[in-house]
Amino acid sequence: QLHLAESGGGSVPSGGSLRLSCAASGDTYGTYCKGWFRQAPGRERERVAVFNPYGSTTYADSVKGRFTFSQDSAKNTLYLQMNSLKPEDTAMYFCAAGPGHFTGGSLTCDYDYWGQGTQVTVSS
After folding, report:
1. In which element (H, E) is residue 11 found?
2. Number of CB atoms found within 10 A of residue 78's CB
3. Mean pLDDT along residues 78-90
4. Among 50, 72, 81, 118, who pairs with 9 as Cys (CB 3.0-4.6 Å)?
5. Which phi and psi (to 5°) does residue 73 adopt?
């Protein structure tokens, strides 16, 4: 069983930066899809940055150029560096991981494992 735990959230003014961390434990996940998601009150969960087992990272258009996904395999930790934060980035941020599989030639990721979330609040 894989366990994920986020940290690093907080309150910052517009234009500020935060780095979120996601520590994994309990099982190996080196070949899994990994990602960061967020959900604001009254809104659907949004995919922020996802990393597939083949080494590519995809970002939501709203965060491109401002957020950076990274990972430290030795520490089993994922990171999300968030710069130039905006009030619309305010949300609960979650990390997730799970196996990927090919369906019809396309990679589908099953995010079976989720952390508890960390709150990010950006004031204007």
Report:
1. strand 10-13
2. 27
3. 98
4. 118
5. -65, -35
